[in-house]
Amino acid sequence: MMKELSIYIHIPFCEQKCNYCAFASFCANEKQKEEYIDLLCKEIKTRKTKRPVKTIYIGGGTPSVLTETQIERIVVTLFENFDVYEDAEFTVEANPNSITENFLQKLKELRVNRLSVGVQSLKDKSLQKIGRLHDKNMAIEKIKLARKYFNNVSADLIVGLENENGKDLCRYAEKLLSLGVKHISCYLLEIYENTKLYQMIKNKEYCPLNEGQLIGAFNKLSNYLQDKGMERYEISNFAFEEYESKHNLNYWQRDEYLGFGLSAHSFLDGIRSCNASNFEDYKLGKTEIEKLTTKQQVEEIIMLGLRCKLGVNLSELKKLNYEIEKNDYFQDYIKQGIIKLKNDRLFLNPVFYHLSNTIISNLMP
Ligand code: SF4
Q1: CB 34 within 8 A of CB 66
Q2: Nearest protein CA to atom 5 of ligand 1, as residue
Q3: What is the pTM of this model?
Q4: 187-237, pLDDT tens digit by residue?
Q5: Residues 338-343: contacts with CB within 8 Å, 24+ apart?
Q6: Residue 12's closest CA among 59, 74, 68, 60?
Q7: Closest Cα to atom 2, ligand 1: which residue?
Q8: What is the residue with the minimal CA distance to atom 6 of ligand 1?
Q9: 18 CA distance to ligand 1 centroid (A)?
Q10: Hey, what domains does the chain have and what are their CATH numbers?
């Protein structure tokens, strides 16, 4: 039987650049969008394989800035060239300001079954300061609309925004859950030098939470979501049973995937590659091949596995000649209940997720 794979498609367009964003995304006119979709469809056709597809994820950027015709062209090209399982998880990312009923209808027709909405906050002042184009009410209305079409709706929240403590975050989560959201991703605010937010902080126009406040806020939110019956199945991700993102679990267990579009990564037949991250180079089909050393593979297995509920497969590490049991910290961590061994897999106790960086780095070769 042929090995399954996942597919990621990157849509790099946004209506406006958010102040904190360092992703490969930019504002484009219709001509650029059409040109990009032509290239994307060409890439999809060129890289066709017979391997069955178990998950698809269209992310960005903001896929919901595309017209219904544009998204249809991409998905139809994909279905014509790949053998996608009938029950494949198919996620599209969307921002509240660009979600329309027509767009949702089209996604439904195209077999999309999961919508991931960039909510980030439910406080108007916060949203405005970080440069989002929606306010609280719009986010709520659009999630209600999305739920009319999709049972499986996920929402993103950012932890660390100015004047947003754990209590605020729990209030947002409460609202999202009351709207029927099944999955919540909670990302820590990261400040990148090339962003507007970095300048705002430097000019004392913006004051994100400090590290202690950040950890406190995240823990409060995390406890709240778990009290409500969600599982923290990865450091930043919470879901009700059966609603974990299969696509992301695929990355975390290092299964293979193909990525199409600007800056998209692929991992196929043991080879990792990345498409160019600027439009001109992407047009020329430039790709970088990355060959991981054995040490890098070991590090990746430990890092991805311990950050999620899947854990680390110890026989995989042994195949790469790393006996983690002989690591200086291993026995101590086991004794203290920080890590647990079960059926040849190693798990990080979720209670210690907030210390994961140190624990993971201590367990590295
Ligand atoms: S919508 Fe997302 S990708 Fe686009 S600018 Fe904002 S954070 Fe970046």
Answers
A1: no
A2: 17
A3: 0.95
A4: 999 999 999 999 999 999 999 999 999 999 999 999 999 999 999 999 999
A5: 339/306, 339/363, 341/314, 342/311
A6: 60
A7: 61
A8: 18
A9: 5
A10: 5-252 (3.20.20.70), 294-363 (1.10.10)
